[in-house]
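Quick one before lunch.
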Amino acid sequence: MVIKGNFLYTPAIDKTVIQKNAYLAIRNGRVERFYKALPEEYAKEKVIDYGDAVIIPAFNDLHIHAPQLINRGVGFDKELLPWLETYTFPIEANYADSAFADRAYKIFLNQMWAAGTMRFSAFATIHKAAAWHLMELTEQSGLSACIGKVNMDRNAPDYLCEETEQSLEETEELILKCQKEFKNVSYILTPRFVPSTTEKMMAGLGRLGEKYDLPVQSHLSENRSEIAWVKELHPNSKTYTDVYDAHGLLRKNKTIMAHSIYLSGEEKNLLQEKNIMLAHCAQSNINLSSGVMPLRKNLAQGLRCCIASDVAASHTAAMNRHITASIGLSKINWLQHPEETALQLTEALYLATKQSGSFFGKVGSFEPGYDFDALVIETDEMGGMLARTPFEKLEQYIYAGDDRNILARYRRGKYIEKPFAL
Ligand code: GUN
Ligand code: FE
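Model of the fe (iii) ion complex:
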């Protein structure tokens, strides 16, 4: 397959490549190379011409709560812990009901598709059947994901509090079924966060991580009351990060820690050594008044950071909104900390495409060998009367665009249709 158009991608955080009116040869779903003029050998190939549209790598969202999507926008006058108790735990309780889960997860996957997010890492709920159903629906959708059943066995309302052994057994059952049945969905261990998981649970999950060499996702250092609570629960641990580490839950190159706002130098060094992905959730951090991650400093230190949504503490799955939230928050932070310069648009694009894509392999760029995961974007509202460069089109889409501006979506070279009719 050959695709023609204006391609824009970020092979590095400080490098943007724009290929205008170029042909991109795609073989087995992967990027082969660009051509200015199409050579003879491609004469028989199908060429899809997207004209003046701009083609960018699709988004990868490494932190999202699938069951919460239907609650987006609700309850943001509260901070994290009361928000969880008042709005989030009650909505997650509904996933004991299979009809509810079926409809809500189809809505979720349609929204991911609309957002141009072709790959994600999601929390489900504690419910085994609903978590399995989310995996099945995701496999059907053509998108790709890491998905985990949430584990929680303390400090949760009765209706969401699990028995430790049973939770671990159910988790192992899902791991094995998932390995057997899916091509595009894989299991990720998902302890909710330290306050929700006993040491026995964390240690059990750490052992499953070792046994099956699995990735892990959780929350770290999001809110000051949460951090104080972790200290109270684990007085003998040096830090919040150490609690995860002591239980084998900082799996090298394979762990996503959302938020990671209030980290000490020691914690950062440990996270860097283990190459942990820190999911920066700016819109969520604003909505729940959680705080400002020092993203510029973290990047300068070489910490692995990406931009993620954290729906439903954020109010949309749309990754362009999370890019603008990250930039906006970094500008406010810059005013207060002049040495922490604001995030540039192309830097933010990198963090939401290639950086987050690295969790899935060669994903998030148009360099040779990368999976062709792409969005075709058109923002022209003047019928061609106002000339716009591809970069200006990208800027307008990121700031002012939505799913109506995405003309086509591809994952690993395959055109992806809206997954579900509801
Ligand atoms: N910490 C523990 N659970 C959650 C959750 O569902 N959302 C967010 N933002 N933080 C959490
Ligand atoms: Fe979260």
